[in-house]
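Practice problem 4.
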């Protein structure tokens, strides 16, 4: 069944993807608009639950972001909350307890941009739908587990009755995935450190920051990092989340090249003179917008 919200969902997906990709975060972004049959089933399942003057359906438009690294989940939440109006009350963040096997789920609700509201209301055709969209954030490994679990357990609950041992074993797979995610992160950290020790800055940077970065470290900047051991040492200790958040917020936006990233990091942080002397005026201006 065709969704009346397909084009709006695709526009929101494009915006979300552009925001995430603009700072190089590694992810996959998907969108869906609820079709007419799904909305009818939801409304008929619990008559009276939803109404124009009462509770509204908030997931007519859904965006799913699968992130390569679990530490990016909170980072992307912060980025999206700075771009859209965040409905914290309607949002849910599920984090497993210490003794539980379960995926971390961020189901976040944001208000639609004003320029899409008229089109959304026209597509809603009088149904009790809230002018918002839902974003699900998960790591890419837990996303795969969740897809299997949703289709083969959540939608078939009766077939799992009296089989709690197998249900717990399926949850136990999450622990393996979390260990794998942690191990992947440590592997890239170790690779970055080895390149730091050998002064291979172009190889170090993408493994250290774990984002897509264009180009190579220039010869001029390489000479500075080779000779200024304090600057190189501080760079390998970069606060990754702070750097990415500030690069997203800064104006004008800085293209994600290796040189620009190093110059921007230095401008908002340690301000080593050897790097400051080479920093283009545009990057200094951009950095000052988040440091003022």
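Answer key:
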């Amino acid at each position: 069944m065709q969704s009346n919200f397909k084009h709006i969902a695709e526009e929101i997906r494009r915006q979300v993807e552009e925001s995430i990709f603009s700072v190089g975060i590694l992810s996959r972004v998907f969108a869906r608009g609820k079709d007419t049959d799904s909305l009818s089933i939801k409304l008929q399942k619990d008559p009276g639950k939803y109404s124009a003057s009462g509770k509204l359906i908030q997931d007519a438009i859904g965006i799913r972001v699968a992130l390569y690294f679990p530490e990016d989940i909170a980072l992307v939440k912060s980025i999206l909350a700075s771009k859209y109006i965040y409905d914290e009350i309607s949002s849910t963040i599920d984090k497993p307890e210490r003794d539980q096997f379960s995926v971390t789920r961020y189901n976040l609700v944001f208000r639609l941009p004003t320029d899409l509201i008229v089109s959304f209301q026209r597509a809603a055709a009088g149904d009790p739908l809230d002018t918002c969209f839902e974003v699900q954030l998960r790591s890419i490994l837990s996303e795969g587990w969740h897809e299997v679990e949703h289709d083969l357990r959540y939608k078939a609950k009766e077939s799992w009755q009296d089989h709690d041992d197998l249900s717990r074993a399926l949850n136990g797979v999450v622990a393996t995935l979390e260990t794998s995610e942690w191990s992947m992160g440590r592997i890239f950290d170790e690779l970055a450190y080895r390149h730091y020790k050998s002064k291979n800055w172009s190889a170090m940077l993408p493994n250290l920051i774990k984002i897509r970065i264009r180009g190579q470290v220039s010869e001029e900047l390489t000479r500075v990092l080779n000779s200024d051991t304090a600057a190189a040492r501080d760079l390998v200790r970069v606060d990754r989340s702070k750097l990415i958040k500030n690069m997203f917020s800064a104006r004008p936006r800085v293209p994600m090249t290796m040189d620009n990233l190093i110059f921007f990091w230095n401008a908002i942080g340690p301000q080593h003179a050897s790097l400051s002397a080479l920093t283009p005026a545009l990057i200094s201006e951009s950095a000052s917008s988040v440091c003022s």
